[in-house]
Amino acid sequence: MAPSALPSFSSSFLFPLKTQKSFKPPKPLTIICSSQEPKKPSKNPQRPTSRNRKRTPYGTSRRSILKKTFTQEQVKFTAGVSADPQVGIIGGGMAGLLCALSLEKRGVKSTVFDTGMHGLGGRMGTRVIDPQQLIFDHAAQFFTVSDSRFSKLVDYWLEKGLVREWQGLVGQLELGGRFIPLPSSPPRFIGVNGMRPLADSLLSETSMVNVVRPCWISKLEPFNGMWHLSENGKPRGEFDAIVIAHNGKCANRLLASSGLPLIARQMKRLDLSSIWALLAAFEHHLPMGDGNVTFQGAFVKGVDSVSWMANNSLKLLGSQGNGPHCWTFFSTAAYGKQNKVPQENIPSQTAEKVKTSMLEGVEAALGLPKGSLPRPIYSRVQLWGAALPTNTPGIPCIFDPHGRAGICGDWLLGSNLESAALSGMALANHIADYLQSDGACPEEFAVGLEKEFEAIEGHDIGQFALAGVESSLKQHNEMSAFQLAT
């Protein structure tokens, strides 16, 4: 994407940004150590050791161990930022990518580190199975637009032919096969060739964003006034500021001994639930009652193991003759919790159990006799271990000016594609403003470090949305509540 295509907005979007004139981390949580201005570095600088750590001026001050109370010492950068600052972004989903692109628009270079084996995008994932030519959006299913800044990006995608309005029949499916259509306004949008190409397009025309993948950043270390990132002992670069654009246990582990206790505390406040995704291809249309399924997407109600189902073949490829029909099924959060396992290593027995249970749930939802659902010609289960936030601070981003570190992600504003984009944009502009100030008045740039979280209320339908089906059926103009988030 050309930088000019990105929406522009100032850090005043971060409410409240400068209401607090002083930033005083809570004493029980932090130990602010004095720091010194760094001396001119030698030709062969050496990293500090346990013996000389206190005697060497780094431009930062911290200890590398946690106290038994798990209280970390606060990193406090005192040296000015580099003349040509660089930002390290950990996470290549929508929030991380939009943060990188927005930084480029402000003239700031960045490197995005992503763990994706198949591509960028996080939960903007699309899986294509060859040679059967099967296609599945296996996370975000669609999105809506309500903010003018995100609208500019969607307009760009529309002009490039990357997205289109999804006009297929979508509704609520109750146990036993009762289908209730939902209104189509506001418009629902989908990726023409799935969601993943949208992530790829974001970096297609950049010149100041470097991408490293697959890469699993395992350590953050302040040294000589910079953040040093590493992957299992392998150096991955030095950065003036860092961005955490992912969440869950991996983010918590990374922040546990980073020297960013306020950032870590806010991340740990986030409560996430798990969702199982079942990708299944059937040779023909799925049966339903006296005929075949005609809808393309449905929120399922009254079934323990299924909360959403969508026909990707009809959604992405249009009407098909004798081609296979590729369906994405999501479980409920309750089912995900009951059957949670390490998502990196799902036992085959668990995978088979989940597949069987979810297909039985689909059968019940469609009102079919037990055992009559056609056998899929292809199936695969995937666990999204950090899928649904159950609480949110309701702010665009979080930033610690003393530690020069921030957080962005969809969960900060809710849980959808638009929220992720706005969060990434907001943090990028905030960091750019901070870097332009050369870190002279850090207290004025603290945001979200003590913001309380509020529970997200809504029916558990596993669609990564803020509100439930029941209320939206009563208020047809609230269709934004039905979008699947990243």
From TrEMBL:
> Which Pfam families does the entry link to?
NAD_binding_8
InterPro entries to which the protein is assigned, alphabetical: FAD/NAD-bd_sf
Report the domain of life of the source organism.
Eukaryota
Region Disordered, as annotated, extends over 19-62
UniProt-listed Gene3D superfamilies = 3.90.660.10, FAD/NAD(P)-binding domain (3.50.50.60)
Q: Which PANTHER family match?
A: EXPRESSED PROTEIN, FAD/NAD(P)-BINDING OXIDOREDUCTASE FAMILY PROTEIN
State the protein's name. Amine oxidase domain-containing protein
The organism that produces this protein has a lineage beginning with: Eukaryota, Viridiplantae, Streptophyta, Embryophyta, Tracheophyta
